Amino acid sequence: MQTETSKPRRLIVAMTGASGAIYGLRLLELLHAARQFETHLLISAAGEQVLKHELNLHRRDLEPLADKVYDVHNIGAAIASGSYKTEGMIVAPCSMKTLSAIAHGYADNLIIRAADVVLKERRKLVLLVRETPLNLIHLRNMTTVTEAGGIIFPPVPAFYQQPASVDDIVLHSVKRILGQFDLSHVESSEWRGLNSARAEF
Q1: 22, 57 in Cβ contact below 8 A?
Q2: CA 112 → CA 28, 151, 188, distances in Å?
Q3: Can you tell me the distance from the alpha carbon of 23 to that of 15, in angstroms, rounded to the nearest whole number?
Q4: Which tens digits make up the pLDDT trace of 33-88?
Q5: Strand blocks (E) in 26-185
Q6: Could you tell me what percent of the chain has a pLDDT over 90?
Q7: pLDDT (tens digit per residue) in 156-175
Q8: pTM here?
């Protein structure tokens, strides 16, 4: 629990131009409700287009869910420096373009620069990559990011939770992502083993 004198636990959240804007939205909603992190939000131009197309929302609709919001072209922002301490960064959703730029250190905007900083400072970078099927270039970029310390986290549905809606599926992935950052007071999505009555195959 943060006190007035303690330093905030800062977490960077970025949304880019892959399908799956709902993941970024639900992530921000849970973080906002938990109040355990100071959230720093970035949305790319393509991310804004997807947000509008998939959810009929605008960037301004998400801004109240974050503590700080940045222009992706503001390369001089605080999160562009390793001396600005954060817990890490989540990119949800993460496009293949963003993945490629991170994998090759091509920091031409604040999203990529912030991710580069997180990797170089050995902090946690989680990329919710959204693409299928994957070609060899995608796979090699994922390998490169993993070797650099990042976590590739595609939102694979888990049916052992017996989801009743699309939102159940989305929330399962989002809660697992937040588990990477030890966010408490969020209902667990962990596997608890098969019910013995259903263990016959």
Answers
A1: no
A2: 20, 15, 31
A3: 9
A4: 999 999 999 999 999 999 999 999 999 999 999 999 999 999 999 999 999 999 99
A5: 38-43, 68-70, 88-94, 124-129, 151-152
A6: 83
A7: 998 888 899 999 999 999 99
A8: 0.90
Non-local (6+) Cβ contacts of 126 within 8 A are 88, 89, 90, 91, 92, 150, 151, 153, 177, 180
Average pLDDT, the chain: 91
Q: Using CA atoms, how far apart are residues 88 and 10, in angstroms rounded to an integer?
A: 8
What is d(CA 138, CA 127) in angstroms, rounded to the nearest whole number? 13
Is the bond preceding 8 in cis, omega lying within 30 degrees of 0?
A: no
DSSP for 116-161? HHHHHTT-EEEEEE--SS--HHHHHHHHHHHHTT-EE------GGG
Whether 123 contacts 49, CB under 8 Å: no
* List of domains in the chain: 10-183 (3.40.50.1950)
Q: Dihedral sign for Cα 81, 7, 39, 126, please.
A: positive
CA distance 184 to 48: 30
Mean pLDDT of 131-148: 98
